[in-house]
Amino acid sequence: MTIRKRILPTAAAVLAAALLGSAATPAFAAPAGPVTAQRAHLTLPDPTGRYPLGTVSLHLVDGSRADPWVSTVPHRELMVSVVYPAVHTQRYPLAPQFTPGEAAAFDAYTGLRNYSVPVGTVDWAATRTHAHQGAPADTRRGPFPVLLYSPGGGDPRNWDTTLVEDLASRGYVVVTIDHTYESPGVQFPDGSVRTGVLTDEVIGQAVQNGTLKELLQKVLDTRVADTRFVLDQLRTPGTLPSGLAQAADTGTIGMFGHSAGGFTAAEAMHDDDRIKAGVNMDGPLGNNQLESGTDLAPVAADGLDRPLLLIGSQTNTHHTVAAWSAFWDRTQGWTRDLNLPTAKHGALTDAESLLPQIARQTPLPDGFLAEHLGTAEPCATIALERGYLAGFFDQQLKHQDSGLFDRPAPPPANFVE
To answer: Distance between CA atoms of 353 and 207, rounded to whole angstroms?
Structure first.
C-alpha cells in the first residue's frame, strides 16, 4: 500500500513504502466531489485447480501478549481466514471478500492513501469469493499442506484472494492473517472494527524524531510474532473445525507474502523452522532495502537452509536490492529470483485483476493502470504468478517437481542468475 512522499523524505520514503506499503506512489490525489451513484461491482478470477473451496474465519486471542499498538488492549487479537478444499459446497453461500466493516475501512484507505480510487467508487462489500462459507473440508483426499499468507503493509488479509484461492483449489489449506491495527480495518465476531493506527501522521512523526527504523522494526517483530502464534494455534486441538483439522497437514507448512508480508514470510522462516518453504513477493529483507545493504534483517545476514523464492517487480532483483543480494550470497538453501520487469508492485495483489475492472466502470485519469500495475497484460501476469507459486510449493512441499524452475521463464518474466 502507498505511503505519500509528501510526508516522507527521499530514502525514508523508499524504506517506509517498502515495508509499510508499495514503492509506487500515486501520481494524483483522490478527486474531491460526491460519491458516484452507481458504484463499481467487481469479480475475482476463477481458481484453476480441481477442488471446490470452503472457508472459515477464526478469532484468535494471544493471552501471552499485550497488543503492541494499542496500550488499552490487554491481549493481542487476530482474525484469520482459512481457505481449503471442500465438499458439498452447493449447500453453502459464497463468502464475501470483505465484511461490511472491512469494506468501509478499505474504501476509505484505498481512496485516501492507496491507488487513489475515489471513496465510494467501488462497492467493496459486494465482491464474492469462490469459497463457500462453512462448507465441510474434503477429508477424502490429503491431508493437504498448509500455507500461511501475510499481506503487504496496510493491506488486509484478503487482498490477495486471487492467489490464495488458486492455491487452495490446487490442494492446499491456506491461512491468511490480518495484522490488527496495521490493516485498514479488521472486523471481529462482535461486529467491532479495529482500524489501522499507522497513519501518515504517525509515520511522519517517526521521520521527524529519527525513530522510523525502530517503528519499522516493531512492524516486522509484531508480524513475525503474529505468525508464530498462528502456527501454535493451528496445532492446538480445537482451533480448527474437526473436519478441517483432519484435512490440514500442520506438519507440512509453507508461507508466502507480498511486500511487508514477503519480508514477514522470510523472517518467520529464519526464526521458526516449522516453515519449510517460503515466497517473498517484492518485499524488503532489511531496514534500508534499497540503500547500502547495512541494517540487514537476520534472514539476509544469515541466509536460510530451506527454500525461498524471490519474486520481484520492475528492477527488483538480487543484483539491484542490497538486502536481497546479501541473502542470495549467504543462503545455503534452494533459491530462485523470478523477475517481472513490466509489472509494478501492486500487480502482485488483487489490484491486478480488480483495478482494470474499476477503470472500465468509472472515469479515472489517463495512465491509471500503468501507474499502479505497470504495462504487463493482467491475465497473463496472474497466470504466471499463480503458476510459479503453485509450482514452487508443489515441488517443495508435495515433492512433485514439474521441472518448472529448470526451464526459462516465459516473457515478460525471467530468472535472474
So the answer is: 34
Identify the CA nearest to 389 among candidates 223, 262, 240.
Answer: 262
What distance in Å separates the CA atoms of residue 119 and residue 106, rounded to the nearest whole number? 9
Residues 82/55, Cβ–Cβ less than 8 Å? yes
Contacts of 42 (CB under 8 A, 6+ apart): 122, 126, 127, 354, 357, 358
pTM for the structure as a whole: 0.92
Lookup: cell for 168? 487452495
Q: For residue 230, how many C-alpha atoms fall within 13 Å in the half-sphere facing its CB?
A: 32
Q: Which three cell numbers stand for residue 43?
A: 469479480
Reported as a pLDDT band with limits 50, 70 and 90, residue 110 is: confident
- Mean per-residue pLDDT over the chain, rounded: 90
Tell me how far apart the 2 most distant CA atoms of the chain are, in Å.
57
Query: Is omega for the bond preceding 143 within 30 degrees of 0, making it cis?
Result: yes
For 162-196, b/e burial (b = at least 16 CB within 10 A) is bbbbbbbbbbbbbbbbbbbbbbbbbbbeeeeebbb
Phi, psi of 15 (to 5 degrees): -65, -50
CB 152 within 8 A of CB 1: yes
